[in-house]
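TASK: fixed-backbone design
INPUT:
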């Protein structure tokens, strides 16, 4: 009797290998994201340094203009005491001085605005980097759970930044029946490229919109699983109606 029992292979070794490959790819993806953030941050710091240098140059120009204005004022005062015919020239120089003062005030206002924008951008970049690190740490155990207990596996599609999420155990009549979707993560806004079986586009859009807002894979995978289950039930209903 024991010799007649079939050999059961649960595929744990294969699953473990797939999980290890996925973890390696996911770590590579996170590392690449961090490098990209560091590169953007370094580029931002270079821009800040350039703005500071421009600020110093403008300050020197303002000081030079102030010195010229003072020199002109002294010249005008001296000429005003010597002859009344210089009143027209004095008025012209006074207008130039006022114009330069206005220009200086505009530059000061622009410098204050630039400093404010720089501070806001630095704060936003730092917060973005912290959010990416935190989300990366939370997504890894979430994916492990889905693959280990909820009948999901992740496959490559041969294209960079594209992953195929395959679900089983969705159809109560056929637990081996597969449903899947292809997720494109090449841009900041993720998108579902293709899906089987055919599902309602509104359901996918809701899931993807929430993913792009939170970058949390857990609720996204849960929502997509529900969308796929609904699609399978619809297919089963159509099959019964046709029969």
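OUTPUT:
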């Amino acid at each position: 009797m024991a010799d007649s029992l079939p050999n059961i292979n649960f595929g744990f070794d294969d699953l473990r290998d797939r999980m290890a490959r996925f973890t390696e790819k996911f770590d590579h993806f996170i590392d690449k994201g961090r490098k990209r953030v560091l590169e953007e941050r370094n580029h931002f710091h270079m821009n800040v340094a350039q703005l500071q240098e421009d600020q110093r140059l403008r300050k020197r120009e303002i000081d030079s203009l102030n010195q010229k204005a003072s020199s002109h004022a002294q010249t005008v005062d001296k000429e005003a005491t010597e002859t009344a015919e210089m009143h027209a020239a004095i008025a012209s120089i006074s207008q130039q001085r006022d114009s330069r003062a206005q220009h200086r005030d505009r530059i000061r206002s622009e410098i204050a605005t630039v400093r404010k924008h720089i501070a806001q951008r630095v704060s936003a970049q730092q917060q973005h980097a912290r959010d990416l690190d935190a989300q990366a740490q939370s997504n890894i155990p979430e994916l492990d759970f889905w693959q280990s207990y909820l009948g999901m596996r992740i496959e490559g599609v041969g294209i960079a930044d594209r992953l195929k999420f395959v679900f089983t155990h969705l159809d109560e009549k056929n637990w081996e029946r597969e449903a899947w979707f292809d997720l494109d993560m090449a841009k900041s806004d993720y998108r579902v490229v293709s899906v089987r079986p055919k599902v309602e586009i509104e359901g996918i859009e809701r899931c993807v919109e929430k993913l792009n807002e939170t970058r949390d894979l857990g609720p996204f995978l849960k929502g997509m699983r529900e969308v796929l289950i609904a699609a399978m039930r619809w297919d089963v209903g159509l099959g019964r109606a046709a029969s």
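COMMENT: Confidence is low (pLDDT under 50) at residues 239-243.
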